[in-house]
Amino acid sequence: MIAYGYSFQAPFVSYSVINQHSDLVHTSPITIPRSIFMHDFAATEKYTLFLDFPITLDVGRAIAGGPAVEFEPQYGSRIGIMPRYGCDEDVRWFDVETGVVIHTANAWDDGDEVVLQASRSNTADIAGAGTSEGNNLQESQGRLYEWRINLVTGDVSERALSGTPCDFTRINDDYACHKTRYVYASVFNTERAFTFDGVMKYDNESGVTSECLYGLNRHGGEAVFAPKIGSVSEDDGYLVCFIHDEAENQSECQIIDAQDITAGPVATINMPFRVPYGFHAGWVGA
User: Fold this and answer.
1) Which pTM does this prediction carry?
2) Where do the H-state alpha helices sit in 232-280?
3) Interval 232-273: pLDDT, tens
4) How many CB atoms lie within 10 A of CB 210?
5) Side-chain-side CA neighbours of residue 171 (13 Å)
6) Which CATH number fits domain 2-270: 1.10.3210, 2.130.10, 1.20.120, 1.10.3470?
7) Please, which residues bridge with residue 92 across strands?
8) Among 204, 209, 284, 274, which Cα is nearest to 240's?
9) Which residues lie below 8 Å from residue 8, measured CB to CB, with a gap of 6+?
10) CA 53 remoteness from chain centre
């Protein structure tokens, strides 16, 4: 297992590797210029990736009445790549287009290149989450995005993969750190901040985005991939998500066939209690 942490104090980021016996076998500080909200990172078979994007953390700012977390684009964005058991001085930093990444989907090695896919937005309104409107809302909602970083030439190419506003990017976790064909994500409501109206599936081979929307007044959280028992392909499984119907005040668990998400849920389980909107989800087979 690999892990990282970030703090208000220099060097601001720490990195650890834990073996299959739960022993800490490697640790290193990762030096960055300032305290940031590094909510996620990524890994390939060979490398670990750190995201130095300009969402800053500042206790003094909060004490003075300002936001503890703020988007400060003047600091720019960069991606750090380090060998799995590397140290601070081994990190290579690559400048990328300034923006915001909260959640990554996956990363993998591709010849001389390292590939990263994540939900990326142009800006962030952290302090006003839930109240953003208009153009600012559109700019702060992520879209699926890809970076290709060539470790030999130092070149970086980046592009948007899908125009669908989304976050909570997920894959079939059995394929983590390897090249994946499919990415799943929660689809944003484009008129109401931090509200998700459905789930999407992006196909890296065809470039096609397909969606399953939950319906009027129905919103959900993160959809997690649950592989079928004896699954034989990457998308041979289900997307599982909690949904809440605000008109009926009814929560349910929806199970969607990942190979055909446009068909809607194959099963719906009404919950006997209200399931609050949350953030992340996980799946553990019985």
Assistant:
1) 0.94
2) none
3) 999 999 999 999 999 999 999 999 999 999 999 999 999 999
4) 14
5) 27
6) 2.130.10
7) 81
8) 284
9) 35, 57, 59
10) 14
